[in-house]
Amino acid sequence: MDALDEALLPITEVASSVTKKTTLVVVGDDRFSRGERSGKWARAEQLISEGYRLRVISETYFRELIADC
To answer: What is 14-27 written as a DSSP string?
Structure first.
């Protein structure tokens, strides 16, 4: 477990799949910049199109968001 995992542990729940309860999907920078959609990213987009409140962001943007916490 690295420092990022430890900092997020009290406020997040990391899951191995994207479900209707998911609120955020973080995509690795390489894949995000290429627009290369994984199954999880595709599932997130499907849920978004169905009206679920869910965001897909890059790893860099995620790190910027939590840097201010």
So the answer is: --SS--TT--EEEE
First-to-final CA distance of the chain: 19
pLDDT tens for 10-63 read: 667 888 899 999 999 999 999 999 999 999 999 999 999 999 999 999 999 988
**Contact yes or no for 51/45 (Cβ under 8 A):** no
Rounded to an integer, what distance in angstroms lies between the CA atom of residue 42 and that of residue 46?
Answer: 6
Q: What is the amino acid identity at position 58?
A: S
Element (H, E) at 56: strand 55-58
pLDDT of residue 55: 93
Among candidates 47, 35, 48, 46, which has minimal Cα distance to 58? 35
CA 16, CA 59: separation in Å to the nearest integer? 16
Single pTM value for the model: 0.78
